[in-house]
Amino acid sequence: MKKKIAIVAGGDSSEYGVSLRSADGLMSFMDAEKYECTVCVLHGTDWHAIYQGAQIPIDRNDFSLHTDNGRYTFDFAYITIHGTPGENGLLQGYFDLIGMPYSTSDVFVESLTFNKYALCNLLRTQPGLVVADSLLLRKNEPRPTDEDIVRRLGLPCFVKPNAGGSSFGVTKVKTADQLSNAIHTALAEDNEVMIESLLTGTEITCGCYRGAGELVTFPLTEVVTDQEFFDYDAKYNGKVDEITPARISPHTAQRVQELTRKLYRQLGCYGIIRVDYILRGKPGEEEICLLEINTTPGMTATSFIPQQVRAAGLDIKDVLSDIIEGKLTTRQ
User: Fold this and answer.
1) Distance between CA 67 and CA 48 in Å, rounded?
2) Which of 37, 28, 40, 47 is closest to 3 using CA atoms?
3) Is the separation of the CB atoms in 116 and 159 below 8 Å?
4) What is the SS3 assignment for 257?
5) What is the dihedral of CA 244, 249, 253, 256, to 10 degrees?
6) CB–CB of 273/294 below 8 Å?
7) Could you write out the DSSP letters of every residue in 9-39?
8) Predicted model pTM
9) For 162-178, what is each residue's pLDDT tens digit?
10) Phi, psi angles (nearest 5°) of residue 260
11) Peptide bond connecting 219 to the previous residue in cis, omega within 30 degrees of 0
12) Are the C-beta atoms of residues 8 and 80 closer than 8 Å to each other?
């Protein structure tokens, strides 16, 4: 019999719509001969599944459905929520409590990687990795003056929600008088704001995954955009060139892949992650600068990970099957 997979999408962040598009992508990628897939949409207290064309409430006691044919249960949850609660450990904790295996890393890894400031400070001393200087501000707490921020981090700098994606609430600040508005914009997405010094160079991203077998890194993607940075417009409205494999030396690509595997192992990740970097310095001898680690990367047909999987000569359905079977096998 086919295993029953819940593709869990939606969430409570501004990337709700992006998550639904990732769910559509996953539905098209999954091996239909192995899996019976159902999209489950979570938004606040509204949890429902699209089952046989109907919208059915999800029983949160055990993540099951009550259908005309009886109770319908799932064997596995493939989480594709970008932001809370699927990328910060909350949903992982719920699934742990009810005994449902899932596609991502565990509660600790998800909560750590979602907190940009905590992650960057943890990895700051990692050999071979550069991390930008940053400050953390909290809502309704005193903050440094604009002058102190500029003195510490310089201009331009980035203001972004500390716990959130990189598509919403992010501002590239060029003058000190822009800081207040940028902080206000970021606080609309999260109660904590990270202000980060600017890293300039070649932006690349590296996908990596482990399922039942060995840890695999994909070919790197180079991100080229005329926008101020790789924002929502660049990501989802086509204002970017995504070049896979990246136009960098084989030696540099190998260093980035090795570092990505090292980070994956050290953090104890599972499933697919994507690590974003800036390369700066002499070609072939670049410094590798960390931007962020994304543990539920986009999975539309044009997203980075499917591109990189194709460039690696792999089939995305096999990668997804490997992730699912890797978790299910360990539970037997």
Assistant:
1) 12
2) 37
3) no
4) helix
5) -130
6) yes
7) EE-SSTTHHHHHHHHHHHHHHS-TTTEEEEE
8) 0.93
9) 987 666 899 999 999 99
10) -60, -45
11) no
12) yes
Give the residue among 204, 206, 201, 144 at the shortest CA–CA distance from 176: 144
Look at the block and give the residue holding tokens 């159902």: 38
Residue type, 118: A
Q: How far is CA 279 from CA 128, 129, 208, 305, in A?
A: 12, 10, 18, 20
- DSSP for residue 2: P
Cα separation, 134 vs 288, in Å, equals 17
Give the dihedral of Cα atoms 254, 295, 96, 26; nearest 10 deg. -100
Rounded to an integer, what distance in angstroms lies between the CA atom of residue 254 and that of residue 100? 36
Beta-carbon-side half-sphere exposure of residue 256 (alpha carbons within 13 Å): 35
Tokens of 180: 């207040």
Radius of gyration of the chain (CA): 20
pLDDT digits (tens, 9 = 90+) for 75-105: 999 999 999 999 999 999 999 999 999 999 9
Backbone angles phi, psi at 256, to 5 degrees: -65, -45
